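Most newcomers find our protein records easier to grasp once they have seen one. Read left to right, the backbone structure tokens trace the chain's path through space. Once this layout is familiar, the rest of the handout is easier to follow. The record below serves as our worked example for the rest of this section:


***
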Amino acid sequence: MTKIFSQIIYFIPFILSGCQSRAELPQIEEESKAANIQVVSIKSTNIKEGEEPFKATVTRINSDKNEVVAINTSGDAIQDVDYQLNVSSLTFNSGELSKEFTIEIINDQYREDNEDVIISIGSASVTFSIVDDDIKFESNNPPLFYFSADSGVTLSDNVVASWTDSVKSTRMFRIAQDNAMPTFQQNALGSNLPALQFDGVDDILTIQSETQLNLDLFTQKTMTILIKTGDDVTARQTIYEQGGTVRGLNIYIFEGQIYFGGWDTMVDTDQVPAWEFISVNGQVEPNTVYTIAHVFNAEEGTIKGYIDGDLIGTIDNANQLFNHDSESALGATRSNTRFETGGKTGDGEFFNGYIAEFIYWNEALDDDTLSSANQYFTTRYK
């Protein structure tokens, strides 16, 4: 009995010592989950790209303790791509009721939908939208299709697989069988905006036939394109063409000139007169950015060509353009076309240069609208 009692007495100091040590450990405050955060407020629910950085204010209920609260974000917008925060957490000292942090909206040059940002701190949150300021060309004349290299381009190792129309998502320029694809180049035009690079050897994109494009009777069309020429503007190079040797429209470069052509060489059932190839042309230089526009107007009987918003010429004798069932092509001739020298069969005449945007109307735009289109292109790319 004496032995057992002595052993109990022997262990008591260690037990007491352990209890005392635990009681004397410093209190480590874990990061708060910010249950006492009451309000997160910002200046507006819609913030436009390009606006100055602004402050968000966080207000808490309790002010009698120190705490660190994390700032969490979610939503469509991507942090460090669409916006940036100057901190990831806030430290409140005892007695502090509010804190601020800075939000910076990144002003990119890509056209995109408005994107939401949700800022959550504890149970409080606030949502705002980043409003895109990279507006595409708007007019009272809705285009048939609208392609831009900063939207709808599908890539495979930086090579273009398809280019989707922003007007109708099922319409796209795509790979032509047995030909190569252009490449996607960022800042190709010196404007920090992308373009598709055609190598002048075998790159081409095609678009399927459809009623509104080529499988009907047409009296008016307008094509506006933002291009950059390559080193060579002497060799014949097709920028865009639709149709074949019988009838069609095209834009091409040859011997330092850019041509805007059209033709319908067959007399149709309603006895509309045939018209041979006609074109207007103007000078272009190597390695230069241009806005070009081809305006076909059978009601006036004309084809007009524009370079950088200036009318370079008008030619008469244009008439109606009937059904022409063949894939249209961007960056080369696809199957057949016609030049000032006559008909041409097969693929070829590959473009050496860049194409950034292509807007196509089934009407002949007036000078004011064409001037607005040129101003839009100039503002974005030059």
About this structure: The helical segments are 2-23, 367-381. The longest strand covers residues 220-229. Residues 1-34 have pLDDT under 50 and may be disordered. The first helix runs from residue 2 to 23.
